[in-house]
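Quarterly update from the structural biology core.
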Amino acid sequence: MDIQENIINKVAQSGLVSFDLADLQDKGERVVYDMKDHLFQGLILREKDFREQVKNQDWEVFKGKNIAVICSADAIVPTWAYMLIASKLQPIANFFVFGDLELLETALYLGAIEKLDVQKFKNQRLVIKGCGDIEIPVSAFMALTSKLNPIVKSIMYGEPCSTVPIFKRKD
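Predicted structure, tokenized:
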């Protein structure tokens, strides 16, 4: 008898479904738009100058990109200024937020999770992959767990060969 005939893949037979949050990562470029570049002497935003700069800005450089809008200077920037930037980014950028790149990444994942059709996981035993090549925000794991809890039979974290139990529906 050939020894290879006796090898059984118990993971494949377990009925576990593996899900990798990295598959939801938006592949678009991430860019920071810093409002400090519009401040007079790095301190204040002068409306007339700001509006002129916004008018003359080449907004096409942001086409299809994911934008984190910040102000890295210790200055008070009025809310309307951010709204003006949003009005210019909206028809061009893929997505934008007020916040840093970490917040941008979180928002991109949360948006993708919200759109995710979880019905395909109904009554499944799901393993959410825990390690990978890209860093995934913890908030994405939490949001996915929340969305899947009412649908799946169980949720585990890790790899199919080594999991941490998270949730198991009581039948």
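DSSP finds five helices and seven strands in the chain.
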